[in-house]
Amino acid sequence: MKNALLTALLALHTAAFAAEPPLRVCSLVLAPQTMKDAGDQPAGYAVEVLQNVAGALRWNIRIDYMPWARVVSEMKLGRCDMAMTVLHFKDYAQFMLFPHEAILDQKNVLVVRRGSGIRFDGNLENFMRQHSIGLYADKRVNDEFETLRAAPWAQVDTVPSAELNMKKLLAKRFDAIVENDLNVTHEMRKLGKLDEVDILSPPLSVTPAYIVFAHKPESLRRMRQYDYALAQFKRTEKFRVLTARYLPEGGPN
Questions:
Q1: Rounded (5°) CA angle 176-181-184
Q2: In whole angstroms, what is the distance from residue 69 CA to residue 77 CA?
Q3: Percentage of the chain surpassing pLDDT 90?
Q4: Rounded distance, CA 90 to CA 113, Å?
Q5: Shortest CA distance to 97 belongs to which of 229, 205, 218?
């Protein structure tokens, strides 16, 4: 009798879980963190991290890809429950809840054509006074870059996508681009052009990237659960294998 009752209770719990509407996770496409696989399904480092955490928490999630401007709009309107991957800026924090646990440290770097002779000594203003720069729409780097790009002498060309930004660099439309180091390595390798560019050092910024939550009554509880589950997942061999596959030069923190 007890076994029958337990089985019935488990069946009810499973049915209730399955009946709950999925948590909507909004994201731009930013390989290899978030992208689509050959079967048009969500894939990438951040996606797999979230899928593992969601599985441990028994969350039903649905990942929707869209331009970043729409991700921001949907989060403001509460139409998304979560978003990935997001850097911590004060304006984002007004309508996004940032958990304690980051998923990786994101490097924004300057990228130039190999053989151009262009170097970077860490002085961004001097670099921008001498060279034209391309970046994709909605790209956020840091406060210094945002201030300098507004200067009347700055030569900054904004394009719709990261892929187009890289193609225009190769076509000599500008001297350098600002990119996420993982993204530029992934996309240039896909284009067969990785050996035609140099990633300059030092990076412009190294900033923790997060999977964030919308400002909703239930989000604080979910975020606490997420922080605990992600911290636990980071201790597993599965996480170490995942990190080595997507982030070969080191871990997320």
A1: 65
A2: 13
A3: 81
A4: 34
A5: 218
The model's pTM is: 0.84
Q: Is the link from the previous residue into 202 a cis peptide, with omega within 30 of 0? A: yes
CB atoms within 10 A of CB 38: 6
Q: pLDDT tens digits, residue range 31-78? A: 999 999 999 999 999 999 999 999 999 999 999 999 999 999 999 999
Lowest mean per-residue pLDDT among 5-19, 104-118, 146-160, 174-188: 5-19
Tokens of 166: 């890289």
Q: Treating both helix axes as pointing N-terminal to C-terminal, what angle do 45-57 and 237-246 enclose, rounded to 10 degrees?
A: 160
The 3-state DSSP class for residue 112 equals strand
Q: What is the token pair recorded at 75?
A: 């989060």
What span, in angstroms and rounded, lies between the C-alpha atoms of 183 and 91? 24
Position 29 pLDDT exceeds 80: yes
User: How far apart, in whole angstroms, are the C-alpha atoms of residue 205 and residue 144?
Assistant: 10
Separation of alpha carbons 15 and 6, rounded Å? 14
Alpha carbons 206 and 141: distance in angstroms, whole number: 9
Neighbouring C-beta atoms of residue 36, cutoff 10 Å: 15
Distance of CA 207 to the CA centre of its chain: 11
User: Residues with Cβ < 8 Å from 192, sequence gap 6 or more?
Assistant: none
Is residue 159 within 8 Å of 134, Cβ to Cβ?
A: yes
Q: What is the C-alpha to C-alpha distance for residues 173 and 154, in angstroms, rounded to an integer?
A: 15
* pLDDT score at 249: 62
